[in-house]
Every structure is written in structure tokens, then in C-alpha cells.
Amino acid sequence: MRVLFNGRAKHDYLSDALTLLTGWTREGEQIRRTLVLDDTQHAALTERVKVVADALRLRPQISRRANRTQIQVGHGDGEPLTEGEVLLAARIEDAVRAVTSS
């Protein structure tokens, strides 16, 4: 069963979901996460995120500087965050756990 959210209820729903994603920060209509990963972990994470993002038809931005991986989800052009983008962030967290636990 799919539940439709609109207006304020949708905003509250997404805000509640975002509070469950530790390590993510919200900047306007985007959410970001910075991780300290080695090159192998970064490569594995990027591949896993690509698979999930393709399935959701979303394009997160993933960048690498020194030993830090930064992930950004959202449009940043005034478009609000969607349920799919919050879902992608949750799936990214699953991928982070998978690549850092081994």
C-alpha cells in the first residue's frame, strides 16, 4: 500500500525521516554526508551507490578530496527533497556500513 503525502504532512514526514539518518546534514533542499574512507572503500561505495541511484533514477554527487568522500543528494535549485532522495540517503547508509565493516 502506498501512502501519499502532501503539503505540511510531507515536509514533516521527510524531516522525521532525516532525523534517523545520523551524519547527514541538511543545507536548504540538499542533504550531505562526509565520510573518511580509504580509496578501496570509496570505490566500493561509489559502485554500490550507483546501482541504487540508477534504480531510483536519481543522481547524487559523490566527490573525493584527500581521504574524505562527500555525498550530496538533492537538486539545490529550489526543488524540495523528495521521498526518493531520502530513501537514497538511507540506502547509502546501508552501503557505508557494508563497505566499512569488512
UniProtKB/TrEMBL annotation:
GO terms for molecular function: 4-alpha-hydroxytetrahydrobiopterin dehydratase activity. It is an enzyme of class 4 (lyase). One of its GO terms (biological process) is tetrahydrobiopterin biosynthetic process. It comes from the Bacteria. Belongs to the pterin-4-alpha-carbinolamine dehydratase family. Gene3D superfamilies: Transcriptional coactivator/pterin dehydratase. This is Putative pterin-4-alpha-carbinolamine dehydratase. Keywords: Lyase. It comes from Micromonospora globispora. Pfam families: Pterin_4a.
